[in-house]
Specification:
By secondary structure, the chain is mainly β. It contains 1 helix and 7 strands; from the N terminus they run H-E-E-E-E-E-E-E.
Length: 171
């Protein structure tokens, strides 16, 4: 009984620190959501719903239609249709996976990194301004690449050739 009381006191003491970020968020659509604790903008744990818009996620984001992280995603984000993020450190999954910068993996039918990806893009169409790693798909595009492209059509402005069939890249 004493151990249980000590554990309860320790948990209550930790609540003010935990209240800064939500541990579990259940989203209906966009920012219409409930979270425990009440912070629906910054989630450290699980963000689950139909469509979710969150500022930061450290953990897992799983949504049926769309998942959007305004600032930073550390972990994994799954969305059946659209997955948008600013900074990704981990993995993005969806029919459309789009990020400004990505460190890790983008896995979808269409993967877009507006600036840089350090890791891998795996899908039908992959696009990034700067790739450090690999692009695997039917059509791959990179303005600058340090790595490898594998696909039917591979376009890299600084690649071995500007456009190649099957394999392109630069090391």
């Amino acid at each position: 009984m004493k151990k249980l009381l000590i554990l309860a006191v320790a948990l209550l003491a930790a609540l003010p620190a935990a209240a800064e970020t939500g541990i579990f968020k259940l989203s209906l659509w966009d920012k219409t959501a409930i979270a425990t604790p009440r912070n629906t903008h910054d989630i450290t744990g699980i963000d689950f719903g139909i469509g979710s818009k969150t500022d930061t996620v450290t953990g897992v984001q799983m949504d049926l239609v769309f998942a959007q992280t305004e600032y930073e995603l550390k972990g994994a984000s799954f969305a059946w249709i659209i997955n948008l993020a600013n900074e990704v450190y981990g993995a993005q999954f969806g029919l459309l996976a789009k990020a400004e910068n990505s460190t890790g993996a983008q896995l979808g039918f269409v993967n877009i990194s507006n600036r840089a990806i350090s890791g891998v893009q795996f899908g039908l169409f992959n696009q990034a301004e700067y790739v450090r790693g690999a692009q695997v798909g039917f059509v791959n595009y990179a303005r600058t690449i340090e790595g490898l492209q594998v696909g039917i059509l591979n376009i890299a402005e600084n690649g071995w050739f500007p456009a190649m069939v099957l394999v392109n890249g630069r090391f």
